[in-house]
Amino acid sequence: MSGEPSSSSVSTSHPAKDGSDIDKILNREASAFQREVEVERIFKAFKLNAYDILDVDEQATAEEIKRKYRQLSLFIHPDKCSHPRAPEAFDILKKAESELSDTAKREELDAVINQARIIILKSLNLPSSTPSSDSRLHELEPPFKARLRAQSKQMLIDEEVRRRKAIKMNLANEGLEARKKDEEVAQRKRKAEDDKAWEDTREQRVDSWRNFATSSKKKKKTKVTILG
Predict the structure, then answer these.
(1) CB–CB of 32/86 below 8 Å?
(2) pLDDT per residue over 15-68, tens digit each?
(3) What positions does the domain J occupy (predicted)?
C-alpha cells in the first residue's frame, strides 16, 4: 500500500456549491434588491394619495386593497428588509391602508379624484360619463391614467393647502380668544385687588377725615383779636 488516503476518504472544509445553491443565493440577492426598490417607491409615492402609496387602482375593492397591503407589508417588513428606512416606509404603508379602510376618508379622496376625472374629460370634449374602457382614452399621450394622477395630485395639494390655512386661522382665532379671556381675568383680578386695597384703607381714611373735621372746628372757635 502506498499509504496515501483514498479519494473516498478525502474531506474538504469548503465543498463546491452546486447550481441550486447558486440559484438560491442569486434569488436572495434579487429579493433583497426588490425590497429596497419597493421602499424607495413608497417614499416617491404622492403622500396625499393612498392609492398611489399602495400602488392600486382607484376602482380596487376593499378586499383587493387589504390583500395588496398584506403583500407589501410583509415584503418590506423591517425584519425582512435591510433598507435603513424600511420602518418608516412600513408606517407610511400602514397609514395609507388605514385611510382607504375608513369609508369617510376614502369617499373624500374618491370625490377629489372623480372631480379631476371630470375636468380631464371636459378638456378632451368627452362626456363625464365616459368609461375608462373607452378606446378614445387608450390612444392618449400622455396616457389618461397619468393625466388623472397628475390632475388629482394638484387638486389634493390645493385641498391640503386650504385645510392647513383653515387650521392656522382657527388656531389664530383661538389664540385671540384665549388672549381676550386672559385679559378679562387680569382685569377682574386687578379690580378685586383695587377693591381690597380700598377696603383695607377704609379705617385710615375715616380717621383722616375725623382729624380734619376736628381741626376745622377748632379753627372756627378761635377768636380773632381786634387791635386798636
Answers:
(1) no
(2) 445 556 776 666 677 788 999 999 999 999 999 999 999 999 999 999 999 999
(3) 49-113
pTM (predicted TM-score): 0.64
In DSSP notation, the chain reads ---PPPGGG---SSPPP-HHHHHHHHHHHHHHHHHHHHHHHHHHS-TT-HHHHHT--TT--HHHHHHHHHHHHHHS-TTT---TTHHHHHHHHHHHHHHHHSHHHHHHHHHHHHHHHHHHHHHTT--TT--TT-HHHHT-SS-HHHHHHHHHHHHHHHHHHHHHHHHHHHHHHHHHHHHHHHHHHHHHHHHHHHHHHHHHTHHHHHHHHHHHHHHHHHHHHSPPPPP-
Torsions phi, psi of 126, nearest 5?
-115, 150
What confidence score (pLDDT) does residue 113 get? 96
Task: Read off the pLDDT of residues 64-106 as tens digits, 9 standing for 90 and up.
Answer: 999 999 999 999 999 989 999 999 999 999 999 999 999 999 9
Neighbours of 219 (CB within 10 A): 8
Q: What is the pLDDT of residues 164-217, one digit of tens each?
A: 999 988 888 877 777 777 877 787 778 777 777 777 777 776 667 767 667 666
Whole-number Å distance between alpha carbons of 3 and 152: 82
How far apart are the C-alpha atoms of 121 and 129, rounded to whole Å?
9
Q: With beta carbons less than 8 A apart as the criterion, state whether 76 and 89 touch.
A: yes
